[in-house]
Design a protein that fits this description.
Length: about 280
Amino acid sequence: MRVLFGFTIYILTCCGSPIQKEKKPSILVTISPYDTFAKKIVGKTVKVITLIPSGGNPHNFSPTSKQMEKTLKVSAWFSLYESSEQKMFPLFQTLLSSIQIVDLCQSIDLIQEKDGGDFDRHVWLNPKLAKQQIILMTNTLKKLFPKHSSLYEENLSKVSADLDRLDKEIAHILAPHKGKTILVSHPAFSYLCKEYSLQQLSVEQGEQDPLAKTLGSMLKTIKKEAISVAFAQAQHNNTGLLYIAHMLKLPVQTVDPYSANYEENLKTISQLIAENGRH
């Protein structure tokens, strides 16, 4: 919050003159996959700004004043409603009284994290749920910029068809592996696993590495399920995963749930899961 307070002082003292509106309107998304989705819908009609840069962790991201400055003219923020985002809402609503903050998870049956804390919001990793979110995004954009409604509808049809095709491809790749357990550093794959009948075993629980008392049972599960690969994620703490992989001599594959190359990335992750099946 110190960064946000400092940014508020910066705006009030250094920007003297009112914020000038750009000719092209702009919208804000939180992470790269939604930047990809939004740009496919709006084309060249709207500027899309991504709050969290590539490689950033949405769970604990704190923007710099320069990063916040880029967002000052947005008409809407398509948010995942992560706690780190919600801390910024009051500032945005103060500086941009007309901004629409849209909860992209509002119509989705969210999965609660195993530690009983917040809800898992890695929804985009299920193409069917991503499609629901893009429909919500498009409906909001049509209200904000009605003169482009027909274009947005046309683009939505194309994106929806792409996601339907992606869903079928992933289902085909993973069909022989139903019931398989995947070992991950951070529990980002709940919605992917639920959709395609997989199980997720996360080393990290509640943003923490496993306690010594739970490590033993985790090692037993890994051996019982004949897990043959460990999936690390660059944006998160992989210390516990790498320790387990070293102990059990498991190969480590690094994947990026936040990649902007959405379709190819999900297919790659699915293929890695399929290629590293049971012994």
